[in-house]
Amino acid sequence: FSSKRPGFMHACGHDGHTSVALEVCRWLVDHKDQLKGTIKVLFQPAEEGVRGAGAMAASGVVDDVDTLIGAHVGTFAKLGTIGLCEGGFLASTKLDVHFHGRPSHAGSDPEKGRSALMAACAAAMMMQGIPRSGEGTTRIAVGRLNAGEGRNVTPVHADMQLEVRGETGEINQYMVKNVENIVEGVKRAYEVEAEIVKAGEATTLPSCPEVLDLIESVAKTVPGVESIERFNKPSGSEDCTLLIERVVQHGGRGAYFLFGCNHHGHHRADFEIQDETSLPMAFNMFKGLALRLNGI
Q1: pTM attached to this predicted model
Q2: Cβ-based neighbours of 20, under 8 Å, separated by 6 or more
Q3: Segment 87-102, tens digit of pLDDT
């Protein structure tokens, strides 16, 4: 389906997730007389940048949940595949760094200025050289850098958006600490000010094998499912892990699965999900899980 706004799309699939969740809500209401207990459908905001689930978890919305199941379209799973996530999600921290320099005329008084742009560039290059941990997988990406006021003005402002990831929470914190050390060193070397703001975070996926077995048993009954695979390899990060972690901390359980599509890669302009095939498969998965959890 084409966007109503030409040239705009969400090239990851979260709009599809919302469509599935809305249809699940309609089905739950239509069949509420067959069901028991309380079923919550969570519309997680701001997944990109892992900024939404932490606030939701802190609100207590899942503190009384016995079983929480999340899902995502695509990633490793191709069309017709249900992927059971045994692990693989990396702990992640998203950071914004704001550099503040000192203005001057770049032609007549360059020595009086302190360049926030040069400080940010130096920091970005140094971050790429953070030694990788021998304890597990690491990632770092500087995704955005905006700086400067004009061609002939020593840049006063530079704003950087970056992320680090680690196979465990400890490895992720190792990356965060190195970023902090680099920013502190650049501040002193370039005589600028800088502040670091945490913009989002995610953790690793708690392990609840019995819920994965439940998902697998339901997948075997869903029309269109041609294969069921288990995945446990480093991929991206998902802040739904914070919701599952919160449920587990309160005595519940949780898991995460993938419903496949044939895509060219997430976050690309040619991303596609075969809506009319992949989304009904996800709907039937959640419908089947609701029935199974109700003993039907």
Answers
A1: 0.86
A2: 71, 279, 282, 283, 286
A3: 989 999 999 999 999 9
